[in-house]
Each structure stands twice: as structure tokens, then as C-alpha cells.
Amino acid sequence: MSDQPTSGPTQAQAEAAVRTLIEWAGDDPDREGLVDTPTRVARAYKELFSGYESDPRAYLERTFDEVGGYDELVILKDIRVVSFCEHHMLPFLGKAHVGYLPRNRVVGISKLARVVNGFARRLQIQEKLTAEIAEAIHDILEPKGVGVVVVSEHSCMTMRGVNTPGSRLTTSHLLGEVRDDPRTRQEFLDLVRSNDH
């Protein structure tokens, strides 16, 4: 794998940092089972933090104006969230539910998933992630309203600290009519909950 641009650490520097962490943890980075681990970890992190390589908002710029008079909620549920807590660099995993009330244009549904993935593949806190997704949709599509709900399990809580496996954090960010119109807000929340287990 080639080195990153000179503006940041190189691949070799990232691998050296992983070697240091292995030694700090008490193991030998030259042990047979660990000798390739620094390279693997650096490659994995490059993929896991790929959200820094592009602007997730750009996915929303190609829209469709022909909506056939459709003016009801558009909701994409159960978008897989894979992100890393910026406080401990441990993963949090879950699902995002994204909806908007179109004004006069819609976006391809895969683009909503790409926006979620783009913001999630950064060091994050869930509250900020939820707001970034909603605000990007609101700013670019200019819909009548936006709703985003993220539900995830944080390994910084379930694997360490208070050790509470199975606990999930739910965050929401509602804008426009999805926030201000009680009927629209309730419809959005009911549709998001409709297949919860």
C-alpha cells in the first residue's frame, strides 16, 4: 500500500505507531502472529476512517426533480452505522433511520446511505454524527423537513468502563416540519419504530 500524501503521517509511521502499542500492551511485535499486524491495522484504519477522504455532502448534489407530485415522507431505515468513538477510539455499531419531506426534488436512496457512511467513517460522537447527517440533507436538498434517528451500541461502554453489554444509545435530530408539525413528527417516529425488535 502506498504512503499517504506528505501532509500527514505515512503508512510506515502508522505501522510504527501500531508496533509501539503492541509493545506497550506487553507483547512482542516481532512474534510470528503479530509480525504483519501493524500493516493490517493501518490498512483497516484507512478503510474505517475513509470518511475523511471526501465530503459526504457531495453525494446529495445529484437530485431528481420529477417526483410525480410525491410530497410525503421518504424514509430509509436500518442503514448500518460503523463508527469510532472519538474519546476512546473504540467502535460503536448500530443503525441509522433517515427521512425527509421533499419540497420539489428527491435524491437516489443509495445516496442517503452514502451520506451516513461518509460521516460515520470518522472519529465521532453519536450526537454529532446524527446532527451532521440531518443538516447535510437539510442544507443540500432543501426539503420541508428532515429526521434522523441513530441507535447504536458503544463498545467503550460495553467492553470496558461500566461494562453494560446490550445497552444502546438513541439520538435524534429533527428539522423543519418533521420537528415543528406534531403530526409529521409522529408519523416519522412511528414509521422509524415500525419494525423495531
User: What profile does the largest beta sheet have?
Assistant: 5 strands, mixed
Beta strand count: 7
Which consecutive residue ranges, at least 5 long each, have pLDDT under 50?
1-5
Span from first to last CA? 42 Å
Q: Please, how many helices?
A: 7
> What fraction strand?
15-25%
Strand order of the largest sheet: 5-2-3-6-7
Mean pLDDT across all residues, rounded? 91
Which structural category do the helix and sheet elements fall into? alpha+beta
Rg, alpha carbons: 20 Å
Shape: elongated
Helix content: 25-40%
- H-E string: HHEEEEHEHEHEHH
Notes on the protein architecture:
By secondary structure, this protein is of the alpha+beta class. Helix content is 38%, strand content 24%. It has seven helices and seven strands, in the order H-H-E-E-E-E-H-E-H-E-H-E-H-H. The strands form two sheets. A five-stranded mixed beta sheet has the order 5-2-3-6-7, with helices on both faces. A hairpin with a 5-residue loop joins strand 2 (74-85) and strand 3. Helix 1 crosses helix 2 (37-48). The longest helix is centred in the last third of the chain and has 16 residues, at 126-141. The chain is elongated, with a radius of gyration of 20 Å. It starts with 10 loop residues before the first helix and ends with a helix.
Features:
single chain; 197 residues; alpha+beta; five-stranded mixed β-sheet; two-stranded antiparallel sheet; 7 strands; elongated; disordered N terminus
